[in-house]
Amino acid sequence: MLNKIFLQGRLVADPELRHTQNGVAVASFRLAVDRDFKDRETGERKADFINVVAWRQTGEFVSRFLTKGRMAIVEGKLQTRDYTDRDGNRRYATEVIADNVYFGDSRRDAEGGGYSPAPAANRGGYGAPAGGNPYPSSGGSYTAAPAVDQFADLTDDDGELPF
Asked: What angle (nearest 5°) sits at the alpha carbon of residue 56, between those of residues 3 and 4?
């Protein structure tokens, strides 16, 4: 059987982080995912609002780094569950259980601002902080890779290139 979903959308609100009685982190949030077509009458593109649940480290990552309006890419599986509400009615919930959540935009895109590199002492490689952890541990920022001219060593030996 195959149950795999990929979604890209914007968070409708800040994620809500909770913990189970055993201390397991679980974050829930909603993604607004644009439909592929426009409404015939209004000409506007509508969106679907999809509930997502992220457990453990993924949930902690989501609650720490994603906020309302940020673009996110979610990889996971679709799950349907049923429960009884306070009035005794049987209800059904369909949600995506996130296996992985990725940034769908850059921080500067989300904040509408420009780029400001981290101080020189913080630079630990090609965008990741020193130590190999791809996520900043305490409010750090990503740094740009050093500028490299990848074509600097090319030569036009046969005279066919336009430069």
From this structure: 10
